[in-house]
Amino acid sequence: MKLQRKNGLRATALGALAVSGALVLTACGSDDNTGTAGGGKKTGAASNIKCDGAKGQLLASGSSAQKNAMDLWVKNYMAACPGVEINYKSSSSGEGIIAFNQGTVGFAGSDSALKPDEVAASKKICKSGQGINLPMVGGPIAIGYNLPGVKDLVLDAPTIAKIFNDKIKTWNDPAIAKLNPDAKLPSTPIQAFHRSDDSGTTQNLGKYLGKAAKADWPHDDEKKWPAPGGQAAPGSSGVAAQVKQAEGAIGYFELSYATSQNIPTVQIDTGASAPVAATSENASKAIAAAKVKGTGKDLALELDYTTKAEGAYPIVLVTYEIVCDSGNKAETLGTVKSFLTYTASEEGQKVLSEAGYAPIPAEINAKVRETVSGLS
């Protein structure tokens, strides 16, 4: 059975990688291999990046969920556009939106769409417009754990809710044992870690638990951690670090953090025929069903957290880049448009798959590219 499962997962991954090319659009740029910023040459993977209008330094901040993707994007972009500096400060979605609405950054990263009061506040900065949401990064929120000797751990939404709501306290609890009949579960106390800062990752986990485990998760889906008990750590990197070093620990963070630190992740029993692993391909299956709920140029998405589709991983997030639809600062507008054109390009989206994220589906990504080109 395990061999069949591995072969099935391999086939799924290969199929998803083949599809990923269809999920993203061709990079906006020519193949002449010449840059326009600083007169430099384009090289290697950055060969299709267009630097038109980009200059100087661009400050941005926000979501730590997209940090690993942003690091790669910035590296590739700056290699293609000499003389341009992109400085993305990985903090939290809440801090990024505050910085954006204070006018100190050219764009912000957020794991959840702007709220009405945040849109209203943005109009003071976007003099002739307002802040809008551009979906740029997709991916699974992995539930990582540290339990030596236990592999392929399976949990469902009610059990996850009870763990993080301080109702299930040991790893050999009957609810966990029922989902893992072949595992030798120890009586080790559970150490549940959550984010100490306001986080869109927290909010998206809350949305999932609120939809899929209503009876066991009575909390609002806010950026601030709402449940009692547990231990807090700053950023996704902080939670991952605690899970990595503390036996009996469990926490939530983007898949790239689990992959880079070799942290095992929970498979989710969604009610489908088999538990679903946290992979970028499985997250893509869930994100592909998302619908645009924003109006006008705003592209905020509505995700289905209760999906039971085969192979669809339900705990997903989409990270938005927050920009002004109009009224952007003249000194950074060209760089914002150039950089976001790259991140939404075929090259930029391919980086997501390679880093454990999921590309944005083609129909939505087309709207993102169109919106970026019209920023003013």
Automatic annotation (TrEMBL):
The UniProt record lists the keyword Transport: yes
CDD domains, alphabetically?
A: PBP2_PstS (cd13565)
InterPro entries listed in its UniProt record: ABC_phos-bd_PstS (IPR005673), PBP_domain (IPR024370), Phosphate-bind_PstS (IPR050962)
Q: Where is this region: Disordered?
A: 213-237
Q: Which residue stretches does the UniProt record annotate as biased composition, category Basic and acidic residues?
A: 213-225
Q: Where is the signal peptide?
A: 1-27
The yes or no answer to whether the keyword Transport is present is: yes
Q: Which Pfam families match?
A: PBP_like_2 (PF12849)
Residues in PBP domain copies: 54-347
For bias type Low complexity, the affected ranges are: 227-237
Family named by the database record: Belongs to the PstS family.
Name under which the protein is recorded = Phosphate-binding protein
Organism per entry: Streptomyces ficellus
**Gene designation per UniProt:** pstS
